[in-house]
Amino acid sequence: MILAIIEESTTGELSKEPCVSHHITQSIQTGQNIFKCISYTVIQLAKFNTPQEKIKTEREKWLWFMTKAPTVTNDNYHKFIGNDAILQNAYKMLLTTSYTPKELYKMGKADKEFEEHVAKIQEEHENGKAEGLKEGERNAKIETAINALKLGLSVDVVAKISGLTEDDVLNLKK
């Protein structure tokens, strides 16, 4: 389920319709519901104005909380939330996600630094893989040259079949 919360109308005006509307995704060509197991609800918080004492349903409780959450402080916490465990948890979650612009900037900067660090590690990893492959290829050439020398082949032939230089093959022969 997707819950979309609209705090303000994009036109600056709210329609006269109810604050909650339900939707499904339909194919333009067939008109059939594309995702039978998915629907979504759009809520315009600015249109929800039920007083706290008239709230009856869980949905109304959540809508009320979402409209009042920006004004809830530690001082008036109990007035708004009372002993409702669900709303208490929601408020605690709200506190952990309420950051000042300065804090958000610092977090964004830290995220960027972290991404740069990860990119550097990935680059070093790729460089290490390339170096390892290069070293592995060189070791394979040396092994080929050693085996060819054991068979008694000449230095120039061993250099050609192994891919090493004649000097490298001579050093192996020692």
Describe it.
This protein is mainly alpha-helical. Among the domains are: 1-47, no CATH class; 101-173. The protein has helices at 58-68, 77-81, 85-96, 101-150, 155-162, 166-173, and strands at residues 2-6, 20-24, 39-44. Helix 4 runs antiparallel to helix 5 (155-162) and helix 5 (155-162) crosses helix 6 (166-173). The longest helix has 50 residues, at 101-150. It is elongated. The relative contact order is 0.06.
Ordered list of secondary-structure elements with their pairings:
Blueprint (H helix, E strand, L loop, with lengths): L1 E5 L13 E5 L14 E6 L13 H11 L8 H5 L3 H12 L4 H50 L4 H8 L3 H8 L1
Parallel strand pairs: 1-3
Antiparallel strand pairs: 2-3
Strand content: 5-15%
Q: Strand order of the main beta sheet, please? A: 1-3-2
Largest sheet: 3 strands, mixed
Q: Give the fraction of residues assigned to helices.
A: 40-55%
Radius of gyration: 34 Å
Number of helices: 6
- Mean pLDDT value: 77
End-to-end gap: 74 Å
Uncertain segments are 5-12
For the secondary structure, the number of strands is 3
Order of helices and strands: EEEHHHHHH
Instruction: Assign an overall shape.
Output: elongated
Return the structural class: mainly alpha
